[in-house]
Amino acid sequence: MGLKLIACDTEKANDVKRIIAICKHLVPNKVGTGRQIKAMIMGIPNVGKSTLINTLAGRAVAKTGDEPAVTKSQQLIKLDDDIMLYDTPGMLWPKVENENSGYRLAATGGIRDTAFDFADVASYTAEYLMHAYPELLKTRYKIDELPKTDWEFFEVAGRNRGCVRSGNQVDTYRMSEILINELRSAKIGRITLETPAMIEAEEIVVAEQRIAAEEKKKSPRGRKTLTSSKNAEESEVGLVQGSLLKK
Description:
There is one protein chain. The protein has 247 residues and is mainly alpha-helical. Among the domains are: 13-87, P-loop containing nucleotide triphosphate hydrolases (Rossmann fold, 3-Layer(aba) Sandwich), CATH 3.40.50; 99-184, Conserved Hypothetical Protein Ylqf, Chain: A, domain 2. The chain is 51% helix and 7% strand. The protein is built from nine helices and five strands. Strands 1-3-2 form a three-stranded mixed β-sheet. Strands 4-5 form a two-stranded antiparallel ribbon. Helix 3 (99-108) packs across helix 4. The longest helix has 24 residues, at 223-246. The radius of gyration is 28 Å and the shape is globular.
C-alpha cells in the first residue's frame, strides 16, 4: 500500500483535519457503516503527539507538556462516529547504539534532561549547528564571525545574551540552556539534526563497532598467553621425553 505522508502544523485545525479525511479515504468500506476506523498516534517522546490529538479532537483530551513521558498510558479518543484514535506513550528504541542519535534525541527533548549531561549535549549541538547552520547562529546570537570551537561560541554568545556572572565571567552553562531551549522552540530557525546521508554513514560506523565488539568477545584477553603457555608446556614435555629416550 505504501505510506501516505502529509506535512501539517499541529496547532492549525484546518491543516490537521486533513488527517481525518485521509484515514477515511484509506478504508472507505468502513465509513458510515458503524464499524469504526481504528487509528493510532505513535512517535518518540516530546514531539507533540498530544498536541496533535487535541487539535484533531477539537478539545483538550490529552495532557501536554514541554517534557518527555507526559502521556503515561494508552487512551482512546473518539474523533467522530467513524474514527477511534489510540494515543500511546512515547516510544524509544530498546538500545540506542549510535551515540550521535542519543545526542540528537537529548537535544530535541526526546530524553529527559535529568538523564544526561546538559552541557555535553549543548556542546554537541553547538558544534553541529556551527558547521551546518552558521548563518542562523550568527543571526540569532548577533555574532559577526563564528569562533572555531563550541566553547568559544558559548563565551561570545553568552556575553551577547548577558549571561555574565560576577568577575565578568560568562556563565556558559546558562548559555547552554538557552541554546537547547531555543533549538526546541524553533527560535533559531528551521533546522534538521540529521540527514539520510548522515544516518547512512553513521550506521556503517556502528556496524563496524558491533563487529569489532563481537570479535573481541570471541577472543578474550589472555587467550594468546594461555596458548603460549600451553606450547611451552608441550615443548618441555617433548624435551623430557627426548631425554628419557636417550637414556
